[in-house]
Amino acid sequence: MRIVDYVKAISIFLLTSRVVYVQHGGRTNAFTASESTNFHFDVNIDGFQEALDRFAQIFIKPLMSADATMREIKAVDSENKKNLLSDVWRMSQLQRHISMEGHLYHKFSAGNWDTLELCTQKKVLIKYRACFPGQPCSAEHLQILVRAVPIKEGNKLRIVWPITPAIHFYKEWPCGHLGHLIGHEGEGSLFYVLKKLGWAAGVYEIIKYLKRE
Fold this sequence. Notes:
The protein is mainly α.
């Protein structure tokens, strides 16, 4: 789902369903990730049928409220301005920037007033994307070194490489095992050795999943 569609859908979802969930001891929220938008709720059993019906109407008969959409655009723009000083977001966008130009992953990952307002003026319709077209990098995008100046003082080494889509091995869950090995902090671990040498204060791993056609 493109970002403008996400903005519209989220605003509609939150505004049309919050009351019934609160009245029945529940809550509702939504978020967007690299390849999907997630809508979710929880509610007491006595309000489940009504809550589920409201939830379904978002996809059956969405109400594209101009006011709600504009409020959500302003909220996303405000969050993006905050993220401009976030090293995590800056490095994430930098990684996208050096990926294959023309690939969806290469694009701006969030949204701001300029991008969202422009899409709204063009009356963009909701369009769902099932998956990313191929890998976001080729041989020329690998084995490169990028140095970036962070906002927050400190030094970090970030090593990124593509792996076989984990969905092909969901029973074995290799990414989970790899994450455990990298994140382990006991004696003999990667972190233990690096810390003992005075080279690191922490080690962590992040695995991003991109669906491919």
